[in-house]
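[retry 2/3] chorismate mutase: previous attempt timed out, resubmitting with same input.
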Amino acid sequence: MIRGVRGATTVNSNDAKEILTNTKLLVEDIIKTNEINPDDVASVLISVTPDINATFPAKPIRELEGWTYVPVMCMQEIAVPGSLEKCIRVMMTINTSKSQPEINHVYHYNAKKLRPDLVK
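[retry 2/3] chorismate mutase: success.
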């Protein structure tokens, strides 16, 4: 079965180091809580709000052991008025035997406001 695993985090400023650090922490948490093997990952899509452009948040994912060949793409999120600022969203498409309710979606920092129903 192919499933999507969602995650999101925020940063305090458009700072490359903070963007890379927070993205890495988020993805590592997604991997750990869902027991994801890079060979089971079809792709990872990362979107950022328009106020984030200091670096590509995909960089720390490509540096994880075993993740060199996993397709990762960055894009800009839709600029909806009043939406959460300085937000990095991740959609990881994986092969898994887990059911939808068994998937652990991960939200860090202010991104917990996006899906409070999924925050564990």
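[retry 2/3] chorismate mutase: The chain has one domain: 2-113.
[retry 2/3] clearing retry counter.
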